[in-house]
Write a structure and sequence with these properties.
The chain is an alpha/beta fold. The protein has one domain (about 15-325): Arginase, Chain A (3-Layer(aba) Sandwich). It is about 30% helix and about 15% strand. It has twelve helices and nine strands. Helix 8 runs parallel beside helix 11. It is globular and about 75 Å long. Mean pLDDT is about 85; it is low at about 270-275 and about 295-334. Bound molecules: manganese (II) ion.
């Protein structure tokens, strides 16, 4: 019989890194659970759905550009993604929003992560603006003490902005108030953001380890990671503007001098805190529309004002690969 003449139109990946879709969180069976949390707590009506809301879908669709197949040898990690082990990775989809009750998104996000943890899976969160660690970390109640490793241009210690206490300027402040959060390491801070002297004072009073981008460049990531105690449980939260805009330009607040790809990628993933005992991580603040400007094919690409190809996707996705280091046999997350 002749092969059929047409095939269905191509479409992007519905799930992250070829994982199975699993939206029944009450019957979750997984070692790793990817979860999209598209929305935060907006500071203005215009930001209720911001560009970061598109990022979970964009990251899923782009995920095959880094891992061309789960059986492929990856030279960054010295073997296939899951190393031939029987690791079940699922994509739980996106947390749903309700226009009649905007705050319910945050409650659902927390409930979803609680179910992922109850199933013994490692949550990897696709944001969303950088308010998303707040409900995620609340879900880790009873799983402490957790060392929080934070990559960001900004301090994120505001108590509130426009009366909003769970917004993208406050995740580390809120985390510091949680009993199950222990030491906090903040890496890549530079220039100015929402923080004023009183926020810096509050962070220092807590004992947060504040590591500026320039200190990182001076001493190197190994020296920074050596300060993080071994043997604990670690959650990594990554605001993409912590990275240098030469490799991650698609953020709301690009600022030169940030964390380089080489500093963040192999070190944090394989030699760093997560290898010790990662319990979760998130990626936030990626803006799809800006990123699209940098991912056009050569034929239709406009003059590139940054003069180089964006490698925005590379960093978060490659880190997701380190799940193989983060889910040692017996641990998963709890
Ligand atoms: Mn930031």
């Amino acid at each position: 019989m002749e092969p059929q003449l047409t095939s269905p139109p191509k479409h992007g990946h519905r799930t992250f890194l070829y994982s199975k879709l699993a939206t029944d969180l009450d019957n979750l069976r997984a070692d790793i659970a990817f979860l999209g949390i598209p929305y935060g707590s907006a500071y203005s009506v215009e930001d209720i759905t911001n560009d970061q809301s598109n990022a979970p879908t964009a990251m899923r669709q782009a995920s095959d550009r880094l891992v061309r197949g789960l059986e492929r040898y990856d030279f960054d990690i010295g073997g296939p993604l899951y190393d031939g082990r029987d690791i079940e990775a699922v994509d739980c989809g996106d947390v749903r929003a309700d226009v009649h009750d905007l705050k319910s998104h945050s409650r659902r996000a927390e409930a979803a992560v609680r179910k992922i943890l109850a199933a013994g899976a490692l949550p990897i969160i696709l944001g969303g603006d950088h308010g998303i660690p707040i409900p995620v970390l609340r879900a880790f109640e009873g799983h402490g003490p957790i060392t929080l490793v934070h990559i960001d241009q900004h301090l994120d210690w505001r108590d509130e902005v426009n009366g909003v206490r769970d917004g993208l300027s406050s995740p580390i402040r809120r985390a510091s108030e949680m009993e199950h959060i222990g030491e906090i390491f903040q890496i890549g801070l530079r220039a100015t953001g929402s923080a004023r002297p009183e926020e810096v004072a509050a962070a220092k009073a807590y004992g947060a380890h504040i590591i500026t981008a320039y200190e990182l460049h001076d001493v190197g990531m190994d020296a920074i990671l050596a300060r993080i105690p071994d043997g604990g449980r670690y959650y990594v939260t990554i605001d993409m503007d912590g990275m240098d805009p030469a490799i991650a330009p698609a953020v709301a607040a690009p600022m030169p001098g940030g964390v380089t790809f080489v500093q963040a990628d192999p070190r944090l993933g394989q030699e760093g805190a997560c290898r010790r005992h990662g319990c979760g991580r998130d990626y936030a603040e990626r803006r799809r529309q800006q990123d699209d400007l940098h991912h056009r094919r050569p034929a239709d690409r406009q003059p590139d004002r940054h003069g180089c190809q964006s490698r925005l996707f590379r960093s978060p996705l490659t880190r997701a690969k380190t799940a193989q280091a983060e889910v040692p046999a017996s641990t998963a997350s709890s």
